[in-house]
Amino acid sequence: MNQPLGQSVHTIAIVGAGFSGTATAVHLLRRPWTRPLRVVLIERGPEMGRGLAYARSDYPALLNVPASQMSATMSDPDEFLRFARRRDPGIQGEDFLPRAEYGAYLQDLLRSAAAAAPPGVRLEQIHAEVVGVGEVQRDQPVVLALADGSRLSADAVVLAMGVQASQVVERIPSKSGPLAAVTGSRIGGMDPEGKDAILLVGTGLTMVDVACATLERHPQATLHAISRHGLLPRGQTVFRRHTLADEGRLASLSAGSLSRLVKVARRLAQESERNGGDWREVVTQIRWEAPAIWRGLSMAERRRFLRHVRGF
């Protein structure tokens, strides 16, 4: 796009093009800017917009939230549902669709946002691995080092790299040599032949997907799943949304205290079930208010949440 004369281009680099990186890029491309903007989206994998969670897979792993609640745009809650119905008009709002379908939706959002960006705003996509980030200094560009030896300067950098499985595996001692890390993107690609057992670190939804995909191909495989709390995902139900008496006030009720948040959530869940509702309504409300709740927590409380409460 044409750049207005006399104005320098402001560059924002986003490292990682999974959900978080892609959603950030889409948001930046949609905003009105008073100066030229260059959004640089950097992804080391083969595709933009998918990441590990929504990568293509031989096994049709499903989303854990109904289609009508999966829009990436808060102002347009039916955006994902409309996208899915363009491909299959029979899809209902309460259907749980394949994760790969959501990856296609994110890619479509990115293409549309880039095409409709205001004058002077452009998207640049780079397939590369960032191996270093330079020192951050006031009023100075941040320099990113890429694996091919090149450098990229940016006025601001967003790190959206997710949690790398190899970081976890490196902390697990093994007498038989290095462990092989298999992430959610490899669902259905595990081959247990010749191995006594497979250890799944974590007992969340990805564990369920990996276990189902592996046992479908290798019914005799032995799988062990381990986690700190030993919790298993609860079955989904059809439930109402936004029906809580305390709707919109969870952040104020918790007032920056993790213990208060847990107590309020438990109280609301019990009240919901006594009134013929479902505890999932409370979890949905917490998700809706998550940004405000998170901003109200101190760093110490955030660490406590990640360590002790997130699994629940």
Describe the structure.
This protein is α/β, with parallel strands linked by helices and 312 residues long. It has nine helices and nine strands. The longest helix has 17 residues, at 99-115.
SSE layout and pairing:
Layout: E1 10-15, H1 19-30, E2 37-43, H2 79-87, H3 99-115, E3 121-127, E4 130-133, E5 142-146, E6 151-154, E7 156-159, H4 165-169, E8 198-201, H5 205-217, E9 223-226, H6 250-254, H7 258-274, H8 280-295, H9 299-309
Parallel strand pairs: 1-2, 1-7, 2-3, 8-9
Antiparallel strand pairs: 4-5, 5-6
Attribute tags:
9 strands, 3-stranded antiparallel beta sheet, disordered N terminus, alpha/beta, 4-stranded parallel beta sheet, 312 residues, single chain, FAD/NAD(P)-binding domain
**Largest beta-sheet details:** 4 strands, parallel
Distance between the termini: 48 Å
Uncertain runs are 1-6
Beta-strand segment tally: 9
Work out the radius of gyration: 22 Å
- Helicity level: 25-40%
Hey, roughly how much beta strand do the residues contain? Answer: 5-15%
Task: Sum this structure up briefly.
The chain is built from nine helices and nine strands.
